[in-house]
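Quick review question:
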């Protein structure tokens, strides 16, 4: 873990998407952050010790999905699938498929294995799965403000978290500093590093605080409830003190950081200020998490 200094953090942006507004200043404490997202190997140790069963490995409750086709109410998750050619970017269902049997164990569905990508971020984890891992590890999930403060790496008001010289360019001088989408989305990946999906953690340079993969690779859960802007008060959920690890189907939580699917022509959310809301019980092949721990000095 890396100790990220506290202080006054500036979150949000007025230059990009509406949900990132308004820009706010918030106080954050110093905090130990995982250097990289939780990997498949790390999550496997948690499951081996606790017997935890993820949401994706559990059949949905028919009461939560009235009128749904019973054949679809089976364990599974959403998996990104490139299209055969160009498509309208207005319909995300063309490149996402509900895959029965997909879970953290089988990231692309039956026949795939987490062991083939042991050092990649774990995916297909719902919010409660991430919170359960954090509790087991003696940690917790960061708030949105804490996550964004850490992702900025000490830079304020800049689009990216690289260095002060490059902080407003996605690919400064052609340098690839994060795992994002290259090529025409969503049908042809032209990633120069050969990462068509997730990449091993730490494959790209750390930010100013020594944190890897805060941008791209996978989105990351926070413990902040989703609101459509920064205008309202923060609503943080802490499962560390008796709170529930399983939220309802209507609950939405903030995720941060963008993923390997973020593209200049489709989703420019590969920035510290970007945010999106995910259903707490949703899982996908591009959503993971990292943990934090509160403490001081060299604890």
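Suggested answer, residue by residue:
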């Amino acid at each position: 873990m890396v100790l990220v200094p506290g202080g006054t953090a500036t979150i949000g942006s007025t230059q990009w998407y509406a949900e990132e507004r308004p820009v706010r200043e918030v106080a954050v404490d110093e905090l130990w952050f995982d250097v990289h997202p939780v990997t498949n190997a790390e999550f496997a140790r948690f499951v081996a010790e606790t017997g935890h069963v993820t949401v994706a490995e559990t059949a949905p409750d028919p009461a939560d999905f009235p009128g749904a086709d019973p054949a679809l109410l089976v364990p599974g998750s959403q998996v990104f699938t490139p299209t055969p050619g160009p498509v309208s970017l207005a319909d995300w269902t063309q490149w996402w498929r509900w895959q029965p049997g997909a879970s953290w164990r089988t990231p692309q569905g039956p026949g795939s294995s987490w062991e083939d990508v042991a050092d990649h971020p774990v995916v297909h984890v719902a919010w409660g799965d991430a919170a359960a891992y954090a509790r087991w590890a003696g940690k917790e999930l960061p708030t949105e403000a804490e996550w964004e403060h850490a992702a900025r790496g000490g830079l304020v008001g800049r689009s990216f978290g690289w260095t002060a010289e490059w902080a407003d360019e996605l690919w400064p001088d052609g340098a690839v500093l994060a795992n994002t989408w290259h090529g025409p989305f969503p049908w042809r990946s032209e990633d120069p590093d050969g990462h068509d999906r997730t990449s091993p953690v730490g494959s790209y340079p750390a930010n100013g605080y020594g944190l890897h993969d805060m941008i791209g690779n996978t989105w990351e859960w926070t413990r902040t409830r989703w609101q459509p802007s920064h205008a309202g008060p923060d609503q943080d959920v802490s499962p560390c003190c008796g709170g529930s690890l399983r939220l309802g189907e209507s609950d939405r939580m903030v995720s941060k950081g963008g993923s390997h699917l973020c593209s200049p022509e489709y989703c420019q959310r590969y920035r510290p200020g970007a945010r999106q809301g995910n259903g707490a019980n949703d899982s996908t092949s591009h959503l993971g998490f990292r943990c934090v721990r509160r403490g001081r000095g060299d604890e």
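Why it works: The chain has three helices and eleven strands. The longest strand covers residues 219-225.
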